[in-house]
Each structure stands twice: as C-alpha cells, then as structure tokens.
Amino acid sequence: MKKIRVAVLYGGRSGEHEVSLQSAASVINFLDRDRFEIVPVAIDKQGRWHLNDISLLEGKTTLPVFKDAPQVMLPPNPAEPGSGSALIRLGESGEARGIDVVFPVMHGPLCEDGTIQGLLELADLPYVGCGVLASAVAMDKEMTKRLARDAGIPIVPYLSLKHELWKKEKSELGKRIEEQLGYPVFIKPANLGSSVGVHKVKERSGLNPALEDAFNYDRKVLVEAAVNAREIEVSVLENLEAGADPLVSVPGEIDPTHEFYSYEAKYLDEKGATLIIPAKLDPEETKQAQDLGRKAFTLLECEGMARVDLFLDRTSNKFFFNELNTIPGFTSISMYPKLWEASGIDYQELLSRLVDLAISRHEKKKLLVREFRK
Hints:
The chain is α+β, with helices and mostly antiparallel strands. It has helices at 17-30, 115-122, 132-139, 141-150, 163-168, 170-180, 207-214, 263-268, 283-299, 335-342, 347-365, and strands at 4-11, 36-43, 49-51, 71-73, 85-89, 97-99, 101-104, 158-162, 185-189, 199-201, 220-225, 229-237, 247-248, 252-256, 273-276, 305-313, 319-325. It has a 7-stranded mixed β-sheet with strand order 6-5-4-3-2-1-7. Strands 12, 13, 14, 15, 16 and 17 form a 6-stranded antiparallel β-sheet that branches. It is globular.
C-alpha cells in the first residue's frame, strides 16, 4: 500500500515559535510509519520554508531549524490534476516534492489564525485541523468571547483595549478598568497563546507596565477580571462519522505551582504545574465541562480538533468559558493528547484520526460546484 505523504509544518513567524518546535517533534516521532511518509518543513522566524531530512530529526524532543536546508515554497494554486501538490525548491535544481496532506503544528499568529489555512485552501491541499473561519475567530480571544456570550455560554467580565486608544486615554481607561473590573485583573494579548505576554495585575501601579508589554505582541489587548477558579480543560475531536456530534475527552485540571499558568510555568519550569487527569469533578461537573466543550467547538464551526479551556469558580462552583485553541500543544505530555489517552485513544491513533479527517473533509469539498450551472 502506498504511504500517504504528510508534510509536517513547524516553527513559524510567531512568539510561540519555540513551542511549535517541541510539539512538532512529538508529532513526527509518533506518526504511524507504516501508513505515512513524513516530509518535515521548518518555517524560520523570517518566514522562509526549509525542507528537512527526516533522518536528522528522529527521536528529538525539540526540532532544529536548519538554515542551510533547501528552501522551498508552496505555490498558492492547485497543481495539475493527478500530479499532486508539491513543494518547489528555490534557487537550485531538483525535483519538486509531492505531498498528500499537511499537518500544521504551529501556534500563534501567521500560523494558527487562518493564514496558513488560507494558503492551503488556495493550494487545494488537505490539512489537519480547523478551517480558515474557525482558526481566525478562535485566535482572536475577544471575537471568541463575543460569540460565546451571544450563544449563552458564560464568560468572565472583560474589556478590550486598542493600542492607539490606550496611548491617548490611559488615565480614563485605567479608571474604567478599576470601576468595571476591579483588581486583580489579567492582561492578555488578544491574538496569542501559550501565555505569552500575559500578566496578573493586582493594583493600579502594575497596569501600565503590563499593558505596554502585552501591546508588544498585539495591537489589541484584553483585560479580564480575575476569578478564584480551577483551570479545567477538555479535548474535542471531530467525529469520523459524518454528522455525528464531536467527541469530548474526560476533563483534566491544571494545578500551577506559580501564581497562574504562565509561560514560565508551562515551558521553563519542569515543576511549574501538575496535570490532573482526569480532573477531580463529580459526574454533573464532568458533564457540564464536556457539554461546554462540545458547544464551543460546534459554535465556532471547528473541524478536526480543539482544546477548550474553562474556569470553575471555587466560590460559586460555576463554569466559565475561557478560550478555544485550534492547534493545541502536541508534546507527548501536553494536555490535548494526554486527555485522549485517558479517554481511550492513544497518541498514534489520535494522529492517524486527524490525518484521516483532513483527507475526508478535502474529498467532500472537492464535490462542491465551483462554477455556476444554468
């Protein structure tokens, strides 16, 4: 049986570049070699695409980005029928490298926000994960919260600030934050993940420095009321059965040893947090978490996969939707695959399902009529 060529994209022009290198290493190590031929493609921080030799990446826990690897490009147009889409080498001779499906393992802007997905749509290539719409909406935390609120999904109170307005009206907006939200608050870039640029501010004096740092990463920043809550997550997977409800894993809980689940707690401190799988919830709480995960996934019209992050208020015992991640962390110890492992789907099987879902979705799209018929 001919193997399916899977191009694994990693790196990218994002503040989460290094996180991607860890996630992609696990994906490459766990993809089923009996079914798939792996074509590793690194995107460096300048946006250049490099075709890598799989033999140099085997068994690594984080992937290098070799600057001297051949540069390639993916033409943003469909290949000739039957020829297969291909990565074309730049500035040198050599045959184009055909690929059957793309597995983007990249996080953050210009990676996870619909931009890569749009290119892959233009190239007429199957790809793992959510489409352009869901990817773009989920990356913008404010837009996600708006949709959740309008659908009756509870969220914590927040304010959205644009950089230009903040520079003009710091005093007035500071007062508004104090009056409407109080302290403490969380400051978050609207279009980023992995807790990059996130700060917990306990008093007015810490507000400006936290906002200025967050504005380094995005032109829009969220200020959220802090709640005394447990951090609960569920993994969601599109159902292989067409039209069936998405599958939702058992919930897990993140118990950080830091004050909150910061970038340092996630990636720099080996003891930064404990992952409790399954979370210690009663049956009704478990059902609520899973229902919210399924509802959020469906609301944003997600495909393939997503991790849904929730807060469980310790005082009111009420759930709040926090955010949805369309390309969650994918290391072997990341919450998304660990939750599925606890739910009966091991890492390799999970990756195979995601590739199968990508190919199936693409085949259905090819049946759509692209020209007007009289």
